[in-house]
Inverse folding.
């Protein structure tokens, strides 16, 4: 059984050093200062811990940017990451600390972007998770959209790539080809191959293989549903079976 992210934050696991602003955030919750990773015996930070803490930090900063009540954001976060009842206060505390810290969202985004720079799929997972949280009140507000676009820019996503990600969550262009990252000029066979490849690349099972917490599969499940819905529209338009 894979250890829960929250179990890793307790006991001996709490000493693992993340470093940077995310490490400082976690240290504040733990009640001690985490040592910097460089030169420390702990090696690279646990990917699932970094992913989850980064998502908390960026979601909290997004809440601060648009003024949404923290409880709403926390509940949306807990729809993605399973949090034991006993750990709810710690998650709430993480959000509160991230909102209050002098660190800007840019520093959190840069740390995540640097750690996952060779794996853009992980950075896309973070953006998908943030969009899910932004939709907690049934709308992605303008301030949230601008915030997410800025995070995407720090993650080195192009404007077109960001629009493709956003299209899975926000009805803007209503273009299924954008969601599929496909060219309308593709013939039917090319489009089918492209769709199958996209499904394989975005299958929820790949999340665990990439070292993320099992709970993160919910992000991939939502993303795959959007891809499949876009494909159904294209298939109906082209009369494909």
């Amino acid at each position: 059984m894979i250890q829960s992210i929250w179990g890793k934050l307790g006991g001996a696991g709490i000493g693992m050093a993340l470093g940077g602003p995310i490490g400082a955030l976690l240290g504040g919750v733990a009640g001690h200062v985490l040592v910097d990773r460089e030169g420390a015996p702990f090696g690279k930070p646990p990917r699932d811990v970094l992913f989850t803490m980064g998502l908390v930090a960026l979601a909290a900063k997004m809440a601060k940017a648009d003024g949404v009540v923290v409880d709403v954001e926390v509940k949306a976060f807990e729809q993605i990451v399973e949090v034991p009842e006993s750990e709810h206060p710690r998650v709430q505390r993480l959000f509160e600390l991230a909102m209050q810290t002098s660190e800007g969202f840019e520093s959190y985004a840069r740390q995540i972007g640097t750690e996952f720079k060779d794996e853009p799929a992980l950075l896309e997972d973070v953006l998908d998770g943030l969009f899910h949280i932004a939709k907690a009140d049934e709308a992605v507000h303008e301030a949230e959209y601008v915030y997410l676009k800025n995070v995407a820019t720090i993650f080195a996503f192009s404007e077109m790539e960001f629009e493709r990600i956003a299209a899975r969550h926000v009805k803007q262009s209503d273009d299924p080809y954008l969601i599929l990252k496909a060219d309308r000029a593709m013939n039917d066979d090319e489009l089918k191959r492209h769709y199958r490849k996209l499904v394989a690349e975005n299958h929820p099972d790949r999340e665990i293989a990439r070292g993320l917490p099992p709970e993160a599969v919910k992000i991939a499940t939502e993303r795959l549903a959007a891809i499949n819905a876009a494909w159904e529209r294209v298939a109906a338009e082209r009369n494909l079976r």
User: Anything to note?
Assistant: Residues 10-16, 32-42 have pLDDT under 50 and may be disordered.
